[in-house]
Amino acid sequence: MTTDRIRSFLTERRPEGPCLIVDLDVVRENYQAFAHALPDTRIFYAVKANPAPEILKLLAELGSSFDTASVVEIELALAAGASADRISYGNTIKKERDIARAHELGVRLFAVDSIAEVDKIVRAAPGARVFCRVLTDGVGADWPLSRKFGCDPAMAIEILEYAHRNGLTAAGVSFHVGSQQRDTEAWDRALEMAAGVFRTLAERGIQLTLVNLGGGFPTRYLKDVPVVGAYGEAIFGALRRHFGNRLPETIIEPGRGMVGSAGVIKAEVVLVSRKSDEDPLRWVFLDIGKFGGLAETMDEAIRYPIRTPHDGGEVAPCVIAGPTCDSADVLYERDPYHLPLGLEIGDEILIESTGAYTTTYASVAFNGFAPLQSYVI
């Protein structure tokens, strides 16, 4: 939502062009909600969601750890004040020289999902801890993740045993139940699978200790989502069901759920038009689109709340599109968006819940449009 602090910033600063404003007070509240919901679970913020230094510094001060996908993100977390033991290299696809650099920087926790990736770590980060990512079905998520990451449980068992036999510490397993996961029970299915991996390796003399519960915690867009506490209850219940009294070390990797609700994009209406006199649909063109930071509207997976100066007036369906000379730069057409009929060229609008995956998805200068400006307050 648009907080009073964000409204005041926009009124006083009047920033030019489309821009993202993130309210750190909301980030702090979200972190505290996760910490309260899962008090025995370490929080590893997914840096890729929004790597703004101010956000990383705040989270480091609050005690967060960090899930990183590259050496650059590792360096950002270190610069924000996190020690290397609070950083995991969670990308399962890493160059060997990047593994070596991470190890040189002190990182000792790495994700894998193949024997070949284990071999790289054996050579470049001897003695490191590894966890193996296991595939999940993603049922219940608005944006189920693809098969790009992870392996089936049987392969995970072989990978972790291979890591153990080759001098690494086989720490445990990880999974991701899908982005914007609204089913609190999704973790139950994944934890049942994880417990099976633990049991099989225990029979082989290898004691796993870690379950990385991944991300998937949602932000409220146009649909209601369960509160963080409901996820905490469901996850803890599933842990007790599948692990009994021998609970493993657990970590979570919230990204969207940590910063999504903290950000608002200010944008401007560039054009309102129709394709024919008989066309019932208006086209509303904004000065921001898929290439300017709203890439998650792809396939209309994420439908952001939009506030206008004419809210409360009569509305009608319209197509919303971005400003670039690319026919793919259309945000909502398959399921038209209802906006006020009074909307005019030059009106400023607010696109809410845009704190995650916007600045990081924005192009550098496609069509000459500047990258999405970001302010953290």
TrEMBL record:
Pathway: Amine and polyamine biosynthesis; putrescine biosynthesis via L-ornithine pathway; putrescine from L-ornithine: step 1/1. InterPro entries: Ala_racemase/Decarboxylase_C, De-COase2_N, De-COase2_pyr-phos_BS, Orn/DAP/Arg_de-COase, Orn_de-COase, PLP-binding_barrel. One of its GO terms (molecular function) is ornithine decarboxylase activity. One of its GO terms (biological process) is putrescine biosynthetic process from arginine, via ornithine. It is an enzyme of class 4 (lyase). PROSITE patterns: ODR_DC_2_1 (PS00878). Belongs to the Orn/Lys/Arg decarboxylase class-II family. This is ornithine decarboxylase. It comes from Microbaculum marinum.
